[in-house]
Automatic annotation (TrEMBL):
GO terms for cellular component: plasma membrane. It comes from Clostridium cadaveris. This is Thiamine transporter. GO terms for molecular function: thiamine transmembrane transporter activity. NCBIfam families: ECF_ThiT_YuaJ. It comes from the Bacteria. It holds the Pfam family Thia_YuaJ. Keywords: Membrane, Transmembrane, Transmembrane helix. The chain crosses the membrane at residues 20-42, 54-74, 127-143, 155-175, 181-204.
C-alpha cells in the first residue's frame, strides 16, 4: 500500500514538472490553444448545411479577398501589409451567415494566403499568422445587431494573433529597430491592423448590408 502511494506521489511530481515545462515555453502553450480552437471550429463547421449557392458564395468571397490582397498600400519586410479592404469579403460572410460560415471562410482564406504569400519561421507562427488570424475575422458573426462592433472585435482577434507571433517569433526585428519585442509587435501590428481595419469599416458602411443580407439568405 505504501509503495503504491509513493508511486502515485512520484507520478504527480512528474506531472507537475511536465506542466511547468509546458508553461515555460509560450510557443507550446499557444500551439495547444490553437489546436483546441481549431477542433472547436471544425466541430461547428460539421453542423453547417452546405448548398451549391452557399459554396459558390464562399468561393466568390475568398476569390475577391485574394484580389484585394494584391492591392497593397504598404507591406512590412517581415510580413503584414495594408491592403484596400481584403478583409471585407471575409467579414461580410460572417455578417450575413453568422460565425460558423465566417470562421470557415476566414480559415480557408488564411490557408490560401499561406500558399500564395508564405512567410514561415515555425509551425506555431504559421498557425498564428495565417489560418488563426484570418479565421478570427469570423467573430463578427457573433454580433448580428451591431456589425461595426463585431468588426472591431474581429480585428482585435486578428491583431492578437499577429501580436503574439511578433512577440515570440520576431524578436530579432525588434532588436534591429532598437526596441524590445512587446512594444515593437504592438506598434507594427497595431498600425497595420488599425489602418486596414479603418478602410474595411468605411467600405462596410458604404455597402447596403441589410439589403444584401436579406437577398443572399433568400437565395441560399
Amino acid at each position: 500500500m505504501l509503495e503504491s502511494i509513493n508511486k502515485f506521489v512520484g507520478q504527480l511530481g512528474n506531472l507537475k514538472e511536465s506542466f511547468f515545462y509546458v508553461l515555460a515555453r509560450p510557443s507550446t502553450v499557444i500551439l495547444l490553444i490553437a489546436i483546441l480552437v481549431l477542433c472547436i471550429v471544425f466541430a461547428k463547421v460539421k453542423k453547417i448545411k452546405f448548398s451549391a449557392k452557399l459554396i459558390a458564395q464562399i468561393g466568390l468571397a475568398i476569390a475577391l479577398a485574394c484580389v484585394l490582397q494584391v492591392l497593397r498600400v504598404y507591406r512590412w519586410p517581415q510580413g503584414g501589409s495594408v491592403t484596400l479592404g481584403s478583409m471585407v469579403p471575409i467579414l461580410f460572410m460572417g455578417i450575413v451567415y453568422g460565425p460558423s460560415i465566417g470562421l470557415l471562410t476566414g480559415f480557408i482564406f488564411g490557408l490560401l494566403n499561406l500558399i500564395l504569400d508564405p512567410f514561415i519561421l515555425t509551425p506555431v507562427q504559421m498557425l498564428l499568422d495565417y489560418p488563426l488570424a484570418y479565421m478570427s475575422l469570423g467573430l463578427v458573426g457573433f454580433f448580428k445587431n451591431n456589425y461595426i462592433k463585431g468588426t472591431v472585435v474581429a480585428l482585435f482577434g486578428r491583431f492578437l494573433c499577429h501580436f503574439l507571433s511578433g512577440v515570440i517569433f520576431f524578436g530579432s526585428y525588434a532588436i534591429d529597430a532598437g526596441m524590445t519585442p512587446i512594444p515593437y509587435s504592438l506598434l507594427v501590428n497595431g498600425v497595420f491592423i488599425s489602418v486596414e481595419g479603418l478602410i474595411c469599416i468605411i467600405i462596410l458602411k458604404m455597402l447596403p448590408i441589410k439589403r444584401l443580407k436579406s437577398t443572399l439568405i433568400k437565395e441560399v
